[in-house]
Write a sequence for this structure.
């Protein structure tokens, strides 16, 4: 009798205790583009910094940005860094490494469709590398389960971008993520803290749906000379000379101050200030 | 010198030491990282020290300051027990050359068999480096004779071979100083670039010793466009070790080059518009990059960087680098 009870207790405990470890993230996931589609699909417009907690340094660098940068050989084959990759259009494959003896998951891997960047999320408790170690697009990631959520800490990111219009994210930034699965839905929460370009953490969510039929398309990028440039030429706008900086605001009838971004533009209270700001005339007098 | 294998972060090859120079109180947190193939990085002992190890001997690029030589030697011994054959200096500064004499001692002179009984490593540098190190201010020389190069080259490049690997030495005219050397470990695919760039600060343009921003830019473009090849997606492949700070790849060099070019262009534009140095400083042409590279304290601040660029642009408004001699 006692033995039977003990066996039942052990069985019950086995069913309850490892609940977190039972969340399986592996599989093919299709991205749901129902949020921020203009920014994430076609791309953000020049000068659209709306709703981001950036500082003046980020603003100044983005104002100088010129899309001709992508014509340079040394910039053509850059994938999105890990904090931005989940925002871009593209499915994602997730798979795991398992210890052959203990059967514990020792690492999770992700690969996004766009340029196939792979990440490894170590689950074996290892330390993050030295400050002298190289930085990568995926950074160095370690994970732990918090309830049913996979919490991931990432350091050693390469310098990247907050938006594809030149808003920078520094290599000093660190990222915390939460991978949350509900049935066939997956939500990835990214929290980026950047002491160089952000005044508050930038928190974004991206949603995915299980898509077992997805097969990743191999993508290999080799730079090729598309235009002749002088050696060492770096396209950029000198301060105060970017002619397109306010096209986005004027075209959409937004106050110019509002599209410059900053932490206050993230919060509902900003609507009160927004109502007091002058709206620029649309190009060609279209607003008349 | 006190040495303790302490609780600092374990590096890629598991070597880490805390040491203190009791005469100065300076502390070094030495780390050894495997970079790629035959090449390692000793970090934390002043300037970065690149180590190439193989069947023949140990090759060092730079030697750190003298006070950390014992710790550096101990770190080297964790990588290889072979004698030190070459010490190649990337630049003249004491934190790159101060350990030359101490680390060369007991080495193996690789360049000529006649000198091998000297039991000292060959110290290699551009001839300008020798001239800078033995220069005198009327009272004393810039460095003691034991730290001077034993073997110099006076052209734009020199080729050596060690540990089954070509070592390509290139002299960028007028970069950080006029005495610089970039070392390319061709088989290992690693470049040791010295003080041409530093991912934590603006480059030191030592104009008093022949340095120039244009020379730095020219060399960074050469590394970025001619020498370094990324493995995939602008990542890894050729690794570049700067004089200070972390291991880099081509992308890192390219964005650093971008930053310097943009700042040069801004200051050049301001000079063309007749702005004084004070007006340029007030306009803050580096403001968007200061969070990553700027400094308000120490010997090389944002202000001194702007002054150096302003002086160079004013003297040479066309922005042409001096020709490689």
């Amino acid at each position: 009798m006692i033995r039977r009870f003990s066996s039942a207790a052990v069985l019950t405990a086995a069913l309850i205790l490892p609940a977190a470890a039972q969340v399986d993230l592996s599989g093919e996931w299709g991205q749901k583009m129902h949020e921020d589609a203009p920014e994430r699909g076609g791309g953000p417009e020049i000068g659209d910094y709306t709703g981001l907690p950036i500082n003046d340094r980020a603003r100044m660098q983005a104002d100088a940005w010129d899309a001709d940068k992508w014509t340079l050989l040394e910039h053509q084959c850059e994938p999105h860094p890990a904090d931005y990759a989940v925002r871009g259009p593209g499915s994602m494959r997730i798979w795991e490494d398992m210890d052959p003896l203990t059967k514990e998951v020792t690492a999770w891997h992700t690969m996004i469709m766009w340029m196939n960047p792979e990440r490894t999320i170590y689950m074996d408790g290892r330390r993050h590398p030295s400050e002298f170690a190289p930085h990568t697009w995926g950074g160095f990631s370690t994970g732990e389960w918090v309830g049913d959520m996979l919490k991931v800490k990432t350091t050693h990111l390469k310098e990247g971008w907050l938006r594809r219009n030149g808003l920078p994210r520094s290599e000093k930034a660190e990222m915390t993520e939460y991978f949350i699965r509900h049935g066939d839905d997956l939500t990835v929460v990214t929290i980026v803290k950047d002491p160089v370009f952000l005044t508050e953490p930038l928190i974004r969510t991206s949603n995915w749906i299980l898509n077992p039929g997805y097969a990743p398309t191999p993508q290999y990028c080799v730079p090729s000379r598309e235009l002749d440039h002088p050696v060492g030429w770096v396209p950029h706008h000198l301060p105060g000379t970017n002619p397109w900086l306010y096209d986005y605001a004027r075209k959409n009838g937004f106050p110019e101050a509002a599209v410059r971004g900053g932490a206050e533009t993230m919060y509902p209270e900003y609507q009160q200030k927004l109502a007091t700001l002058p709206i620029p005339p649309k190009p060609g007098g279209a607003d008349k | 010198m006190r040495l303790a294998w302490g609780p600092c972060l374990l590096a890629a090859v598991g070597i880490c030491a805390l040491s203190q120079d009791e005469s100065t109180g300076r502390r070094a947190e030495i780390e050894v990282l495997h970079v790629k193939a035959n090449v390692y990085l000793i970090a934390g002992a002043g300037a970065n020290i690149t180590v190439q190890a193989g069947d023949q001997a140990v090759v060092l690029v730079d030697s750190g300051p003298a006070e950390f030589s014992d710790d550096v030697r101990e770190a080297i011994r964790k990588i290889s027990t072979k004698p030190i054959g070459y010490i190649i200096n990337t630049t003249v500064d004491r934190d790159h050359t101060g350990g030359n004499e101490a680390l060369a001692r007991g080495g193996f002179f690789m360049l000529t068999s006649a000198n091998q009984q000297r039991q000292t490593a060959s110290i290699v540098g551009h001839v300008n480096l020798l001239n800078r190190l033995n220069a005198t201010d009327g009272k004393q020389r810039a460095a003691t004779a034991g730290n001077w190069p034993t073997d110099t080259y006076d052209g734009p490049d020199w080729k050596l071979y060690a540990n089954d690997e070509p070592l390509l030495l290139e002299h960028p005219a007028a970069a950080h100083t006029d005495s610089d050397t970039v070392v390319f470990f061709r088989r290992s695919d690693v470049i040791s670039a010295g003080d041409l760039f530093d991912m934590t600060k603006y480059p030191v343009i030592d104009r008093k010793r022949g340095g120039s921003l244009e020379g730095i830019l020219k060399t960074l473009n050469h590394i970025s466009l001619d020498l370094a090849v990324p493995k995939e997606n602008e990542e890894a492949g050729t690794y570049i070790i700067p004089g200070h700070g972390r291991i880099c790849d081509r992308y890192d060099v390219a964005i650093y080059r971008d930053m310097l070019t943009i700042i040069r262009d801004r200051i050049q534009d301001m000079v063309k518009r007749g702005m004084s140095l004070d007006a340029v400083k007030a306009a803050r042409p580096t403001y968007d990059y200061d969070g990553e590279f700027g400094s308000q304290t120490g010997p090389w601040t944002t202000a001194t960087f702007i002054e150096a660029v302003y002086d160079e642009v004013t003297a040479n408004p066309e922005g042409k680098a001096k020709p490689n001699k």
In short: Residues 1-20 of chain A have pLDDT under 50 and may be disordered. Chain A touches chain B at residues 56-58, 60-61, 64, 69, 72-75, 77-79, 115-117, 127, 129-137, 158-159, 170-172, 195-197, 220-221, 231-234, 236, 238-239 (CB under 8 Å). The radius of gyration of chain A is 23 Å.
